[in-house]
Write a structure and sequence with these properties.
The complex is a heterodimer. Chain A has no helices and eleven strands. Chain A is mostly beta strands. Chain B has no helices and eleven strands. The chains are: A mainly beta, B mainly beta.
Chain lengths: 110, 113
Amino acid sequence: RKEVEQDPGPFNVPEGATVAFNCTYSNSASQSFFWYRQDCRKEPKLLMSVYSSGNEDGRFTAQLNRASQYISLLIRDSKLSDSATYLCVNSGAGSYQLTFGKGTKLSVIP
Amino acid sequence: NAGVTQTPKFRILKIGQSMTLQCTQDMNHNYMYWYRQDPGMGLKLIYYSVGAGITDKGEVPNGYNVSRSTTEDFPLRLELAAPSQTSVYFCASSQHPTNEKLFFGSGTQLSVL
């Protein structure tokens, strides 16, 4: 069974802190990787795709390690508005099915 | 720009009742999906469609049916509702499969009592 594993948290961090989440995946054939953000009782929204070379979008940095089969998300200078659940997502080769992790809950505290 | 629209937002069903969750997208996306999300769990794919007239089962299709008569609409039918179908249901669409952003509807909270 193809799984995506995440630490459910919660991660409680003060404003301005740096926080990192890891996610491991079991499907070595996975081609695409994403981080989605989900606010309480809301739909998931794409935060960023994850590329083999790593990528950055403002305060967010995503990394992929294919050898160890994990991806990471680093959030710098945390804001209160970053409080949400972060979903790790990947897809298999030739598959229409995305596999979602259960999510990591982040609470940024004033 | 409406994006993906789901109705209803909330519904309570009695065991054995049937209902249809509606999903419409106005982005001319070929790919549409139905997911369910149970508390503390990841999203599970119920059914998906790669275009009008073409649908296929996902990971958890039992107890559900879908149709795709137009590019815009992808309704999900629950027949003989069971308590195990209590969940939040999300419809989503994308221009391309798996390697592009999914656009989600706002979800339907369904309780079967």
